[in-house]
Amino acid sequence: MPELPEVEALAQYLRERTVGRVVTRVEVAAISALKTFRPAPAAVRDGTVTGVQRHGKWLDLAVATPADGELHLVWHLARAGWLRWYDALPERPARPGKSPIALRVGFDDGAGFDLTEAGTRKRVAVHVVADPRDVPPIATLGVEPLSDAFTRERLAELLAARNQQVKGLLRDQGTIAGIGNAYSDEILLVARTSPFAPTRSYDAARTATLHDAIRSVLTEAVTTASGRPAAELKDAKRRGMRVHGRTGEPCPGWDGTPCGDTVHEVSFADSSLQYCPTCQTGGKPLADRRMSRLLR
């Protein structure tokens, strides 16, 4: 799933290529992806792109339209969605059916993009709204972790609000916007903490360490992703992971010094997490989460 660094890079990529361009094509190929019906997607045709923003893991294409004023084409790529950019958009229409294409958008210079989704579970979400806050998941987003509002004090408040597993807090979009499964694994390695640590067990020192880890991991990932073509972002993300997706490989260490242990995994019904026992859990491997207790 694309997370904050990749979505921020996609926003930058689209901003450089679409602002000032006129939308000439909007074709919905997967009706399941369209979550609003008024205004219709066709309402953004003949409008001029005025900006591209990121809201958590959501992308927002702002379009000044002749008839409806400013509209926002907003989408979430979910777990298996992606954006495919074309310098010359295929002339053939995007047809409903077995194609992975969910939406096709074209501009007056002949360029454009497809929103695609692999697999059979279709979760890509596309909205056309007058205000991005009209999309409920955007309206309820938590604090942006790279914003000035995300201070150590703010993190301490979030940790203390209710007792839960720290990995769950990091992934909760209503608490902290933009972090998902992959980057929460990376943050918890750098913070040297168990993914199952209760949030109310964090004192000031551990909170500061976690805050620094969130900032450093995301800042590094945004820097790495910035300026890359959309087609390269997935591979760049995979290469940059220390523990996520690296079960059985040597742990590179929370500070870049190999610790001598290997990356372990805990599997769930439809996902998994990766961690290093030496760096994060005092050398104790975590049992399958369906049977284990919380490790502090």
TrEMBL record:
Every FPG-type domain range: 242-281
Keywords of the record: DNA damage, DNA repair, DNA-binding, Glycosidase, Hydrolase, Lyase, Metal-binding, Multifunctional enzyme, Zinc, Zinc-finger
Residues of the Formamidopyrimidine-DNA glycosylase catalytic domain: 2-124
Superkingdom of the organism of origin: Bacteria
EC numbers for this chain: 3.2.2.23, 4.2.99.18
CDD domains: BaFpgNei_N_1
Alphabetical list of Gene3D superfamilies matching this protein: 1.10.8.50, MutM-like, N-terminal
Presence of keyword Metal-binding: yes
Chain segments carrying region Disordered: 228-249
Reaction(s) this enzyme catalyzes, per UniProt: Hydrolysis of DNA containing ring-opened 7-methylguanine residues, releasing 2,6-diamino-4-hydroxy-5-(N-methyl)formamidopyrimidine
Record GO terms (molecular function): class I DNA-(apurinic or apyrimidinic site) endonuclease activity; oxidized purine nucleobase lesion DNA N-glycosylase activity
Recorded coiled-coil stretches: none
Biased composition (Basic residues): 236-245
InterPro entries: FPG_cat (IPR012319), FPG_N (IPR035937), H2TH_FPG (IPR015886), Ribosomal_uS13-like_H2TH (IPR010979), Znf_DNA_glyclase/AP_lyase (IPR000214)
Signal peptide (from-to): none
PANTHER family per UniProt: FORMAMIDOPYRIMIDINE-DNA GLYCOSYLASE
Similarity field: Belongs to the FPG family.
Protein name, entry field: Formamidopyrimidine-DNA glycosylase
Protein species of origin: Cellulomonas iranensis
